[in-house]
Amino acid sequence: MNYHKSKRIGRRILSAFLYIAIFACTGLHTYAAPASLEEANEQAEERKSLPIQSNQIENWPAGPAIGAQSAILMDANTGVILYAKNIDEKAYPASTTKLMTCLLAAENCKLDEMIKFSHNAVFSIELGSSNIGIDEGQSMPLEECLYGILVASANEVANAVAEHIAGSTDEFALMMNQKAAELGCENTHFTNAHGLFDENHYTSAYDLALIARAFFQNELLTKIGNTPSHHFQATATQPDDFIERNKHKLITGEIAYDGIKGGKTGYTDEARQTLVTCAEQNGMKLICVIMKEESPEQFYDTVKLFSYGFTNFSAVNVSENETDYSIQNSNFFNTSNDVFGNSKPILTLNQNSYLIMPKTITFDDLDSQISYDTSKKNEVAVINYYYHGAYVGNATVDLAEDTPVSYDFTEKTQAGEPEKTQEPNVIVINIKTVLMSILIIAIILIAIFVIRSVINSYNFLDGGRTTRRRRRMQKQRMPRFTKHPYVKKNRKDGPRFPSSRFNGFDL
User: Fold this and answer.
1) pTM for this one?
2) Per the residue annotation, which of 153, 204, 247, 261 is the catalytic one?
3) At a CB cut-off of 8 Å and minimum separation 6, what does 471 contact?
4) How far apart are CA 126 and CA 427, in angstroms?
5) CA–CA dist 86, 135 (Å, integer)
6) Core vs surface per residue 467-476: b (16+ CB within 10 A) or e
7) How far apart are CA 95 and CA 124, in angstroms?
8) Which of 54, 70, 85, 98 is catalytic?
9) Which residues, 6 or more positions from 103, have their beta carbon under 8 angstroms from its beta carbon?
10) For a 10 Å CB count at each end of the chain, is N or C smaller?
């Protein structure tokens, strides 16, 4: 065992003894913890009888009774709530606070930025609380700090990151509260970056799920938050070499469950056990939040809720089932040609919008409301769907993008290569516009015909003199024609032609 590792272990042991000594001397139950493990389990058993709000929805799948004071199961992509138990009740988050800390760190820092540990960052945390033994004056890159916070739940690392970003832990807490408000949190107030107990540091199961949604949208944070253990190697600015293991039993595999994407544990005497976990199965990505539970039941509660969600619910694509708002039926959503030539679609129902629905109901069982209150780019309206008042998701009506024509690669050529088959075009004919166009063209043609006829019968430029002159000339020619030398005049029958030939011409 090298010197640095011995020093680190010795510091942790000393901190633990000092904490126990102070607690024993004062005799104060600072965090109002249960007097015994038996009492704690009794309280957890009593919490199983608390009402589950989601079970009160008509025909909604009945969720399990669990010992947590509050809990929620939410779809990470749509925000649909599958299970709800006291989800708006304020509670202490403990170290699940660190999800927000890391989210702000990822948004405001680069991974290679060096984080220096101040005296306050190292020594302001409570004795015996989670740490990785970093000394004052040492430094680590942000990426290593994120592993320290999410895998080892190190409080001094959370402090150092907060100071690096905001200048002080108090200023960082203001950033945390501002971010929480942006995410839609209404029952949340943070006072520190690590989650150690403070009466004014609280959140709710619903708000913590909103924070987790934003956290798990970040691929890097999801990867780090799903790490069973991490090896911290010695560097010039941090001389200790050690391995830290995650305490989340669903991440380490100690409690097996398929599709785990990551999470964060938390514990203080006042908060009890708290847990945030994300799992993905069957096209659904669910977030489970457990607050105020006893160990190890927070993990088994999570497994129960995940199994409940993946078993009883499914993702349903809106565009494949919607008929009430299908503008495709009125030839408005799906068009590529109109009567005047090639044109583009104007609006389209988002093909990626889907709902999270109980498997026992159909799409026709849902109620819907359309809202035009949206400020997102290329988004015209939002259709919200409900089942007996419970929100199950939405679909957006978007301005159609200039995309290439889609093809169906179902038929094969003789060479074995797919043959592109263009989707049939829907022709749009605006009857009103067509009739008006035909009427205008007809009026123009009639007017041209009338004007031309008038011009041909009367010359407006010389007052009709040309027409009269032509008539006089025709009258003058007639007598000369009747006196032709080869025409004999019969006073009874009028002029006639002789039957004989003259000079080779037939008259």
Assistant:
1) 0.73
2) 153
3) none
4) 72
5) 41
6) eeeeeeeeee
7) 16
8) 98
9) 179, 211, 214, 215, 218, 221
10) N
Residues of the chain with pLDDT under 70: 1-33, 326-345, 401-432, 457-507
Q: How far apart are CA 322 and CA 364, in angstroms?
A: 9
Name the token pair of 85.
């138990």
CA-to-CA distance for 395 and 325, rounded, in angstroms?
10
Query: Tell me, what's the pLDDT at 32?
Result: 57
| pLDDT of 430 | 61
326 classed as catalytic:
no
* Residues 205 and 227: beta-carbon distance below 8 Å: no
Q: Could you give the dihedral angle defined by the CA atoms of residues 487, 489, 490 and 493, in that order, rounded to the nearest 10 degrees?
A: 70
Unique residue bearing structure tokens 């004795």: 127
Structure confidence at residue 470 (pLDDT): 65
**DSSP state, 502?**
B
Q: Is there a contact between 278 and 290 (Cβ–Cβ < 8 Å)?
A: no
DSSP line for 216-262: HTSHHHHHHHT-SEEEE---SS----EEEE---HHHHTSS--TTEEE
Q: What is the distance between the alpha carbons of residues 363 and 283, in angstroms, rounded to a whole number? A: 18
Active site residue: 54, 70, 95, 129, which one?
A: 95
Note if 98 is an active site residue. yes
- Per the CB < 8 A criterion, the answer to whether 106 and 220 are in contact is yes
Number of other residues whose CB lies within 10 A of the CB of residue 334: 18
In this prediction, residue 373 carries a pLDDT of: 86
Does the active-site annotation cover 168? no
Which tens digits make up the pLDDT trace of 251-268? 999 999 999 999 999 999
